Amino acid sequence: MRNYATALAGYNYQQVEATLRSRVVSSAGEPLNPEVVRWFASELDVTIHDHYEQTETGKVLCNHHALNHSVHMGAAGFTSPGHSIVVLDEEHSELPAGQPGILAVDWEQSPMCWFKGYHVFVTKAFVGKYCLSGNTVELSSDGSISFVSRSDDVITTSGYRVEPFDVESALIEHPAVLEAAVIGNPIRSALSW
């Protein structure tokens, strides 16, 4: 996304502003870095409405809902109509707001089960009635859900959980950094050297 923002920065969009005006911008896939969100707000005067979907689940989180709710930077939105979403801990117990856990879709309530034969397959992603997304998220008190990281991307260092997305977002805030990618390195503990 950084390349698009860089390309758009040199474009004189004011010339066509009278005829072309973005009212809503949507994004799905990887969460957007704060720099991109701020650029769209300051340069195009539009808020990006982020969403979350997977092939297995469809679009289960979105920021549409007639666009009459506040959009929080980094939030993938609210549960899409027709879906039931929960955040689970490692023992598959439901977590309250403010605690990161695994995004789980109540598969029995999912519109995906309305199609004959689609629900027949079974994978390790299913635990009881839930389809586990493999993503760590956090439920906010207002019901919105923010993407934290891929569950298998979390880095543990000196007993702390470090989310690669948070480190990447902090790095690209520096003007000398164009893009950043953070991965864990399975080396010996600093204490064992």
TrEMBL record:
Domain AMP-dependent synthetase/ligase: 22-107
UniProt signal peptide: none
GO MF annotations in UniProt: acetate-CoA ligase activity; ATP binding; fatty acid ligase activity; fatty-acyl-CoA synthase activity
Keyword Nucleotide-binding among record annotations: yes
Matches recorded under Gene3D superfamilies: 3.30.300.30, N-terminal domain of ligase-like
UniProt-listed InterPro entries: AMP-bd_C_sf, AMP-dep_synth/lig_dom, ANL_N_sf, Mitochondrial_ACSM
GO process terms (BP): acyl-CoA metabolic process; fatty acid biosynthetic process
The keyword Calcium is annotated on this UniProt entry: no
EC number per UniProt: 6.2.1.1
Family: Belongs to the ATP-dependent AMP-binding enzyme family.
Name this polypeptide is given: Acetyl-coenzyme A synthetase
Lineage: Bacteria, Pseudomonadati, Pseudomonadota, Gammaproteobacteria, Pseudomonadales
Gene label: acsA_7
